[in-house]
Amino acid sequence: MTDNTKIEKIVSLAKQRGFIFQGSEIYGGLAGTWDYGPLGVALKNNIKRLWWDTFVEKRSDIYGVDAAILMNEKVWDASGHTGAGFTDPLVECTKCKKRFREDHLEDATCPSCGGELGEKKDFNLMFETKVGAQGNQKSYLRPETAQGIFVNFKNVVDTMRPKLPFGIAQSGKAFRNEIAPRDFVFRSREFEIMELEYFVEEKEWESEFSKWQEAIWNWTDSLGLSRENLREVEVEGSDLAHYSKRTVDLEYNYPGKGFDELSGLAYRTDHDLKSHQEESGVKMTYTPVEGDPFIPHVIEPTFGVERALMAVLSESYTEDDLGDGRVFLKLSKQLAPIKVAVFPLMKNKPELVSKAREVYEELRETIPQVMFDDNGNVGKRYRRQDEIGTPWCVTIDFDTLEDNTVTLRDRDTGEQKRIALTALVEALDL
Ligand code: GAP
Questions:
Q1: Does pTM surpass 0.85?
Q2: Residues 245, 258: Cα–Cα separation, whole Å
Q3: Ligand 1 in reach of 386 Cβ (< 6 A)
Q4: Which pLDDT tens digit goes with each residue over 83-93?
Q5: Phi then psi for 118, rounded to 5 degrees?
Q6: 87: helix, coil or strand?
Q7: At what angle do helices 305-316 and 38-52 cross, to 10 degrees?
Q8: Which of 173, 230, 232, 359 has a Cα-to-Cα distance from 253 of 20 to 30 A?
Q9: What pLDDT digit, counting tens, does each position of 248-299 carry?
């Protein structure tokens, strides 16, 4: 299977099985937007939950926030996003008037009609909007979640009294008016970021940066991404964001695309807190137990949810020759949207259906992500569950009615074993 075919198959499976649909599809779509179906939202939530558990719940030095998407416009002046720092180079074809991102073009003529390209302009990626009935207060849909953290720095310090080093984490939507959204959900105009700002003393930044590099590797391990599909890249020169003194991206080897950014780790210095202090007039200092107040420096590990999801789908998409060839998603039990599916052997035997329903309802009490399926034959049902990555299938047959045993089938090996219903939850090992 070539890499191009693999990505086409993943995109098609994502649609067919209810993971990801084109945004506003019935109206012909809206470029750069995607809608998540029942399984897509479950997978996305599982990724976000794993991130939150790893970096907020399991750590005593990181605090969560959920700031507003709409913020005072001065936030973006202070952060530098309204200026030249948050723009992409735009060129327009003088003939067909189509617009392109200049740094993505392979030659100096229009890729659509071959016409001559006009002068390069800086195109700001923020979506502007107006707040209130008067329409005279400008705001933006946030292009990153980080600023919601910085503007709440004092609130968290004053209420939680953390000791340096400590972090503030947030995940949520971000919006960028990308000139050329592409590669499925990889470059969208509306997407989600999971990020945290880790505040440190300036002299500690290098050692803390290294610790975060390690923490990111551990997190990608827990997503099930193999290390040979990942590489660190030192971001240099004009690719470095306007706020960063050092950035190391982690790139994933996306099928049909090659290595590209999955996450970034940036040393933002004291740029943001200092700028907000200047713009707002509010002190953004931290007071140590001993010594004078100072503005901390910050290390920022940031992850794109959609890019993590695309990497997880790519890594888990598997074809093997079980039966007459099958497709399955080798998702970890933690990430799988559905953990177990319950089937009656036959749909037209009420006693089997009712026993299967009973088992399904009982399982739901301990494992909410259970699916009941009585459509088609058992082989077809296995196929459907394989394609959505369900680790276990349980079949209720006539023996179940006699001796309360069921057939438990393992997604990866296809192996089936007979077990007592009383041992089922333990055998699922979720
Ligand atoms: N606060 C830092 C920041 O926003 P970024 O590298 O611009 O850094 C963070 O974006 C992450 O968001 C990236 O590492 C990438 O995974 C994801 N991302 C960026 N632009 C995206 C887009 N247009 N569509 C989907 N994900 C995107």
A1: yes
A2: 27
A3: no
A4: 888 899 999 99
A5: -80, -170
A6: strand
A7: 110
A8: 173
A9: 999 999 999 999 999 999 999 999 999 999 999 999 999 999 999 999 999 9
Cα separation of 215 and 194, whole Å? 14
Kindly state the DSSP code that residue 294 receives in the 8-state scheme: B
CA dihedral (34, 37, 39, 45) positive or negative: positive
**Where residue 106 falls among pLDDT bands split at 50, 70, 90?**
confident
Nearest CA to ligand 1 atom 12: 304
Kindly report the protein residue whose alpha carbon is nearest to atom 25 of ligand 1.
Answer: 187
What are the angstrom distances between the C-alpha of 278 and each of 51, 288, 305, 372?
Answer: 33, 21, 32, 58
Only one residue has tokens 């029942």, namely 38
323: pLDDT strictly greater than 80:
no
In sequence order, what are the beta bridge partners of 70?
Answer: 141
* Residue 324 scores a pLDDT above 90: no
The number of beta carbons lying within 10 Å of the beta carbon of residue 422 is: 9
Q: Are 111 and 267 in contact (CB under 8 A)?
A: no
Contact status, residue 411 vs residue 383, Cβ threshold 8 Å: no
Ligand 1 atom with least separation from CA of 178: 23
Tokens of 78: 């202070």
Q: Which residues of 313-346 are buried (b: 16+ CB within 10 A; e: fewer)?
A: bbbbbeeeeeeeebebbbbeeebbbbbbbbbbbb
In what order do the strands lie in the sheet containing 99-101? 99-101, 87-92, 121-124
* Alpha carbon distance 166, 161 (integer Å): 10
Condensed to tens digits (0 to 9), the pLDDT of residues 177-221 reads 999 999 999 999 999 999 999 999 999 999 999 999 999 999 999
Find out whether the beta carbon of 307 lies less than 6 Å from any atom of ligand 1.
yes
Q: Which atom of ligand 1 is nearest to the CA of 241?
A: 7
Ligand 1 centroid distance, CA of 189 (Å): 10
